[in-house]
Amino acid sequence: MTKKILTYIDHFHGKVQSSSWEALGLAAKIAADSGGEAAALILGEGVNDLAEQAFHYGADQVFLADHAILKDFRPEPLAELIAAAAGDYQPDVMIFPTTTRGRTLAGMAAVDLESGVMVDVIDLDWKEDKITATRSIYGGKLLAKLTCSTSPEIITIRTRAFDKPEPDSGRSGSITNLEVSLDPADQATTVMDIQEKASGVSLTDASVIVTGGRGTAINPALTPPDDLDEEGADVWKAEQGFDLIQNLADVLGAAVGASRAAVDAGYIEYDHQVGQTGKVVSPDLYIACGISGAIQHLAGMRSSKVIVAINKDPDAPIFNFARFGLVGDMHEILPPLTAGLKAYLEG
Prior knowledge:
By secondary structure, this protein is α/β, with parallel strands linked by helices. The protein has helices at residues 18-34, 48-56, 75-89, 100-112, 230-252, 260-264, 295-301, 330-346, and strands spanning 4-8, 11-12, 15-16, 37-44, 61-66, 93-97, 117-121, 123-127, 130-137, 142-146, 153-157, 174-177, 208-212, 255-258, 285-289, 306-311, 324-327. It has two domains: 4-186, HUPs (Rossmann fold), CATH 3.40.50; 208-346, TPP-binding domain (Rossmann fold, 3-Layer(aba) Sandwich). The N and C termini lie far apart (53 Å).
C-alpha cells in the first residue's frame, strides 16, 4: 500500500488551528507506514511562512496558494482550489480537521470530486490498501466503523482525538505554487466585515475545560437587586456563578464551557455551548459544575480523558461518567478549590 495523503491546513488569517497539525501528523504516520507521501494544502493571503511550519509537522510536500482573493474565508473559491489541487496531485486520502471551516470544505470537496466523506473520526486503522475509520454515534453510546469505496477517501478528524506531533525544525520539503485564476466578480459571497470577540482559550483546542450548567443560578445565599424580575434574577445569579467558573478557568489556563440549558436561559453566549448542538470537545480534563449530565451534553464531552463533576444532587447522571465527583454546592466548593489550586500552582 503506497498512499498519497493530502491534508488541508485550516487557519484564520495565518493563525493555524492546532487540529490541522494533528491531521498532518496523522497523514505523516499513514505515509510512513505505506511508503507514501504526506502533503499539506495551504490557501490564503500572506501564508508563505506556514509552508515551513507544515514541513516541521510532517509534510513532505506543500501545495501553496497565496493570493489576496483568499484573505477571508469564503468556501466557494477555496473549494474550487481544493478540487483543482486534488485533481493535479491525485491523492488517495484527504484529511481535514473537524473545524467549522474544515467540515464545510470537506463536504464541498466530496461533491466536487464525486467521493465520500467520513466525518468526525476518532480513530483510524490502515492495513494493506484499506482504511477503516471509527466515529461515535448516538451521543457516544456506540462506535461505528466506516470505509469509503471511492477515491480520494475524504476524512475529517475530531479535534484532540489524535496526538499533535512534536515539530522537527530540521525537516524540509518541496513547495508547489498553485495558480489562482479566480475572478472576484464570479464569487457568490463577499466578506463585508469581521468582528473579533475578546480573546480567550478556544474550547475545541483546550486541554482543560471548566463548564457551567443551570446550577450556576441556583444559589440561595445570593440576594439579587430588587428591580429584577424572576428571570432577570436568575441571569444575575448565573453571572456570579460563571464568575467563579471563569476564576477557576483562569487559574488552570482553561476554556469556559456551558450546557445548552445555561445558554438557552441566557446565562452565557452560544459560543461556549458544549454538547450535541454545540461544540464537541476532547480535553485532558473536563470539570462540570452544576451540570446534571443530559445525554445531549454528554455527547459533546464524554470522550474527555478525565471528567470531574460538581453537583448538589448525588443521583445526577453526570456522576456515572465522572472519574471524580464532588457532591455539594458549586458556589461553596469553587472558591476554596480555586484558591487551593492557585497556591499549589504558584508554589
